[in-house]
Predict the structure of Guanylate cyclase domain-containing protein.
Amino acid sequence: MSTAKSQVTLCTNIVRYERLLELSKAQANAAVSFQQHTLSKLAENYDGYISERVGGRLMVTFSSPDAAMAAALSLLKAIEDEPFYVRIGMHFGDTSGVGQHVSGLGVVIATELEELASPDHIVISDALRQQLSSLPHVKIYPLGERFLPGVPEPVVAHRVERV
């Protein structure tokens, strides 16, 4: 039996993955493979765990908020010359489970924040922003309170851009 613990959930999704799959299964598979390979290396480097892969969506959990942000920024840098875009949502909060079986409100919030992100952007919760110790290469823009499906209280969101 696992207990809930606070950690960062990073959810990333290839933009218009379903459409890419319709146009070219080979290109869609290549995009997913590149994203998964890159995130696997980043998870290893930043002490994270890939917890889910469905279609063009990957979920990674981190115990360190700063490491999670560094991994997200590194992912955007790694794909800047690739022929696809990703959206990233991140939240610091309670999750339950371990390894590839992580669930809970923290996962729901990260997934919904990913849906708010523009291509090649990151949207984070205020809970994560408050946990970050430094952000030397980013600008944070407030998005205000958001009512997210499956989340009982509004979540304050911020858009993060690399500078």
Observations:
- Residues 51 and 99 are 6 Å apart (CA to CA).
- Helices lie at 17-23, 25-45, 65-79, 105-116, 126-131.
- The radius of gyration is 15 Å.
- Residues 5-162 form a domain with the Alpha-Beta Plaits fold (CATH 3.30.70.1230).
